[in-house]
Amino acid sequence: xxxxxxxxxxxxxxxxxxxxxxxxxxxxxxxxxxxxxxxxxxxxxxxxxxxxxxxxxxxxxxxxxxxxxxxxxxxxxxxxxxxxxxxxxxxxxxxxxxxxxxxxxxxxxxxxxxxxxxxxxxxxxxxxxxxxxxxxxxxxxxxxxxxxxxxxxxxxxxxxxxxxxxxxxxxxxxxxxxxxxxxxxxxxxxxxxxxxxxxxxxxxxxxxxxxxxxxxxxxxxxxxxxxxxxxxxxxxxxxxxxxxxxxxxxxxxxxxxxxxxxxxxxxxxxxxxxxxxxxxxxxxxxxxxxxxxxxxxxxxxxxxxxxxxxxxxxxxxxxxxxxxxxxxxxxxxxxxxxxxxxxxxxxxxxxxxxxxxxxxxxxxxxxxxxxxxxxxxxxxxxxxxxxxxxxxxxxxxxxxxxxxxxxxxxxxxxxxxxxxxxxxxxxxxxxxxxxxxxxxxxxxxxxxxxxxxxxxxxxxxxxxxxxxxxxxxxxxxxxxxxxxxxxxxxxxxxxxxxxxxxxxxxxxxxxxxxxxxxxxxxxxxxxxxxxxxxxxxxxxxxxxxxxxxxxxxxxxxxxx
Length: 560
Prior knowledge:
With 560 residues, the protein is mostly helical. The protein has helices spanning 2-18, 24-42, 51-82, 87-97, 101-115, 121-139, 143-156, 165-173, 177-181, 185-213, 217-223, 257-273, 278-293, 297-305, 308-330, 333-344, 353-367, 370-386, 392-399, 403-406, 413-422, 426-450, 461-464, 467-493, 503-519; strands at 527-531, 534-540, 543-546, 551-552. A four-stranded antiparallel beta sheet has the order 1-2-3-4, with no helix packed on it. Strand 2 (534-540) and strand 3 (543-546) form a beta hairpin. Helix 8 packs across helix 18 and helix 12 (257-273) packs antiparallel against helix 13.
């Protein structure tokens, strides 16, 4: 009963979000509370020591530092955008990508991947969105593409040892982090390559839309250059992100750019060193940034209020997610679901427990927090796998391949920050990112299996890594990739689409073409003749034209 209620709660919650029947914040609160009442009324729950109410309040307390961090992180990086810290970076990116939106989307994947090396998703999303979102909006490109690509890149690199999941798995199963992570490096590299390929395809679709609109990256670069003093500007005012890059905006602080850069670098260094609580670091840095850049109290309040929309939405969703986590743990649903999964695995599939765990890590880490999965479910799965000779380190490796899917979960505060900063609907983001994240996870899992680091039943690892097996992998890869290659070649052979620029352009171009054609026609000498007593000037071989404009047929004799 409890297992059914747990999976039903998750299904109802996802249905309401993806179909946009409820706002994510409301779905995160109302659905868990409703099922908590059902569990309490039916007596089906297995509450822990705290009980359901205390578990919810404990989760809210645990999420408070994260909410504080995101609250002040939005203000800090929003202020850095307003004062112009990222303007040079944006202009550099425009020069680097040239005229191609495909390069811009691929650049998004590269930038998000590089920043993800610090292991913190919030920092990755803040920097990526701050640098690239204004360009996407000015080009008319979908911000969902930005969030999808950044989310995928960060998800693949979330298995880094200092990222969190790897350390959790190594700690709970008492294995060496290096023995867990090092064999997964080839899969991570191929996962990153998969993200770049997916970004390339997304960029091609956006380029087609951009060509239809007639906008180019040159126009965007020109709009970011300061105009001469006294020149009129066409940028719209307001708090829109596009106008936040207006080179004439009053919030610019060009004389403080080096101070703001030093403050940001110091902030990122403290985040990497982890010597102070992250929330405290952002609180202090935000206060310093506001005081130095906006000495007047009125300007400080205006700077804070300008980011109120993003702050309220992301902080509300963080505390709402705490309610879901509290209900899952307080009712005993997590433990019941874990035991139910173990019981559902047939005994002949026992040696495949590592592969099964890798597949289950995708939906389970999406539906649960990392703590709930690694500390609550993974030990139960590992204990069951031990009866079939599967080593704990192999289970640990399989458990981390689902991180690209986990990073798309609404229970991840960094994701809530990403969609809030980009002003993207969570359902629109999920529709494009979930299946792509599954592809990345499957690539990582297949690589680990092919290299023998995750066992496949009773097959010996040496057999999996044999030359014959490698040749088979190559054949399968060619078969799987051939449709994409064939589609690419077909598009290269297809003529480039014509950009529609309106009827005025069409008429002018038609007139130019007719003029060119007429210039290449033979020009006969004009001949004067008489037809019925009137002078006629012959212009063409198809007829005669009189002085009054009348066109008559040629004479039967052929005399022109």
